[in-house]
From TrEMBL:
Gene3D superfamilies: 2.60.120.380. It comes from the Bacteria. Keywords: Signal. This is DUF2135 domain-containing protein. Residues 1-20 form the signal peptide.
Amino acid sequence: MKRIILPLALSLAAPLNAYASLNGCVAEEQTEKRTMFYYANGVGNSFADAVDSMTALESAYKYTLPAEEETYTFGVAYNNTQGLQTDLMQVMVQKMTEYGIDGDPYLMYTLILEDFDESTIEHFFDVLLSDSEIQAMRDAIRETMVDAMRDLVADQNLQTNIYESDLLSGRRVMVVAHSQGNLYSNSIVSAVKERQPERSNSIGYFGVASPAGSVNNYSAYVTVQDTAYVTAEDDRVINPLRDSFTVLPANIDNDPGIFEGRDWMNHGFLQSYFDSELDSRARIDTGVGAMAANLTYPATTAGVGALRASLTWGEQRDVDLHAFEPDGTHVYYRNKQGSDGSLDVDDVTSFGPENYVVPCESINPGEYTIGVNYYAGNAPETASVSLFLGNGQVYGPRETLLENSRGSSGNDSPEIMFTITVADDGNGNAVYTVE
């Protein structure tokens, strides 16, 4: 068990810094009632595509949602595209996860080929391909699946870390998810709620063109199907999935007749669902409005400021967050209050998070270093650290595989995740360089 030693400094006045503090928060003014609004994209979307959709959401809702002492900040919960083939493989993995099926690549291959006539498949394998070619195809499928699952886990960890960090800092989380983004959001929001049940009604999402099989992971604000998701009857991407998987039923006739602005698959977010001439737009407006009206603001556990580092990990018992400040002060579980910042959230019971924060008025020029130490556990563990700066920039999460627990012997040599150099812009404002 970790032995906590209260530092002598707690009973004394805080040491004076040798530097002049800077203005560390130069982003837009933040109110106490702050909501983070994300767009979660589907298959084949470049980051620029996702930003275009997020920008459309911001234009539609930033100043029209309830705004009495409230602010809405918009961002992208980006699911990296690895090409259509790999993206579709991810969808198969996610659908199999919904069913509780192990990710066997040969089972997945069977699902992919399900719509082909059996005799055609047999002819293809037995007549047209040699044994070596068949094995090569199997190997390629396995490799593609491994890559798809690796990217899938990375994207899920990124979004989980960001959403949890938002909630801990007292921010609500609203997500509009399109296509595959619904499968991400279903599992991520469910995991966040399970890990932070006291904040379960502070995060929610509305699904557009959803391939998911249920709405079980939505927040308590969902009272009727129409405020949970919208999928058009003529969506040519979602409908074929129904032949092999359980998919939420279509719930809107989105064909406006003379309107010709939709894409030929009737599936794209901007063209086929969010255009103001479509019935689906009104349904999205209703769902977003329900979230804004009913999601509650979580209690603030983790501070926000000029510099904030947030650590999460897996099932192993304890990974520790460490910070070194410009004057050499080492902030960690034995010394939670530093010269500039503090470890205001500490966890010793798996998953995290842990949080180090420097207030806006306390940032100083010099170098801040953020690291992790695997304190207690009996198997390799992956640590994930995200960095949030007072200029609005977000870095990470960066991940590292920690092979063995080191106990207190690792306190003085944590694995470094970020180095942040802070300088004065000449007007007393902090300028950040991150390595």
